[in-house]
Amino acid sequence: MAAALKQVASAVHLEPRRQFAALPYRTTGGLKVLLITSRGTRRWVIPKGWPMKGKSAHASAAREALEEAGVVGHIDKAALGEYVYDKRLKTGQTIPCRVEVFPLKVSAQKRTWPEKEERTFQWFDVDEAAELVEEPALAKLIRKLAKQAATKD
Prior knowledge:
Elements: H1 2-14, E1 17-26, E2 32-37, E3 44-45, E4 48-49, H2 57-69, E5 71-75, E6 81-88, E7 94-109, E8 121-125, H3 126-132, H4 136-152
């Protein structure tokens, strides 16, 4: 019985946790995507985080973009798609996360924001941004954003 309970408990931990992310972009001077570095591994990522009590998925994503990259603008209410990655916790343990990604058309970047000193940010062309992120599914979403932006023009 105890072994069966352990199997059930470990299976529960394998279920990906939900996160919400903003994919910040601008169209002035051609389509550009904003990437930031993660705090721990310094990989190029997009702003993302856990669900926030009382906030919708897209509002949580917009809040993460403000806290992690200092950007504000119009965020789509519909997700562009999702990707899965392994989040490394402070303990060194990793947990799988399923991230819903919402396009954020940036209108401004603040002079200061909560995580400014903890991360680097940079605007990239779509192809370069897609090459820099480690998750293939995120790279596909970046390219999908470019296709959608091209059809809107």
